[in-house]
Amino acid sequence: MPTKYVSPFKIVVLLIAILVLPAALTLITVEHPGEFTLTSDNPTPLGYTWSLLMFIVPIAVILLWLHKNRAFKLPQRAFWITILVLTPFGFLLDILFGALFFNFHNHGATLGINLPGFDFKTFHWALVLPLEEFIFYFTGFMAVLLLYIWCDEYWFSAYNVGDYPREVEKIKRILSFHPFSLIIGILLVVAAIFYKEFGPHPYQEGFPGYFTFLTLVGITPSMFLFRTARFFINWRAFSFVLFFVTLISLVWEATLGIPYQWWGYNYDQMLGMTIGAWFGLPIESVFVWMAVSFTTVIVFESVKIRLNMSERTLREALLGSKSLNP
Fold this sequence. Notes:
By secondary structure, the chain is mainly α. The protein has helices spanning 8-27, 47-51, 53-68, 76-101, 131-155, 164-169, 179-198, 209-229, 235-257, 284-307, 314-319, and strands spanning 102-103, 114-119, 124-130, 264-265, 274-275, 281-282. A two-stranded antiparallel ribbon has the order 1-4. A two-stranded antiparallel ribbon has the order 2-3. A two-stranded antiparallel sheet has the order 5-6. Strand 5 and strand 6 (281-282) form a beta hairpin. Helix 3 (53-68) packs parallel to helix 5 (131-155), helix 5 crosses helix 10 and helix 8 (209-229) packs parallel to helix 10. The longest helix is centred in the first third of the chain and has 26 residues, at 76-101. The model has no long low-confidence stretch (mean pLDDT 88).
């Protein structure tokens, strides 16, 4: 009897659930987490700065591998367009909302070069954002995208789109509304507001601003690009990237960033769901790189689709020509 076909996207979702559910059930058994005590005013000199190697080293290794293996070419135009589109959103998060969502108390963990961010408490700009934050977002997007490209072109190449230009010819338009993404986004935000107000936690004051921002980052591209891009995404490559980046981010946050105060979270802007075993780590920190990975890949594949529509105008590529539309 033939096996019923299950879409790779659904399998990725199932894999995430298989990992998250037992981990969550285990973590919530820690009812009385221990306290972490710092024994020095500067326990990790330049710790945040050096930790950026967790992204920089994979970037360098993949670029070197691509240079040595000329048969596998980096799609440079699609790569740089994606980076130049997405990186400003990371910068925008910091410049406009960095002081609202985060705090940076351990100044010894950085180079001490601070950039301006908007302070909503005083409605003034203040030098509160370490330079490392901006390097973090830039290299983060680069690492996610390069790892996906490497997996797509080499490690999981058997599962990518073989004749990309030919498949693109079948596409009527890139932009296509995906109502399910909108519904999921609305439900997530409404549930977050409800949990913030009535959940069993001491952080009822404020608004779940960070969770709302992450939801918008993940849902907005999906609303307009998912229906087209899903057929071109190498979901096995994406799953590898997702688990790799999530593992790095958890090691970064749970064992270094939070306990050594490289950065902290303003809980009035958090959902209120925290992981006690990881020093009160907000659940948003687990979701951030899931949202970033998904958004990066879906934007990249959409850009690739557009670049393979060289004979169409931008309007025709995005919205379709009148002759192609029903």
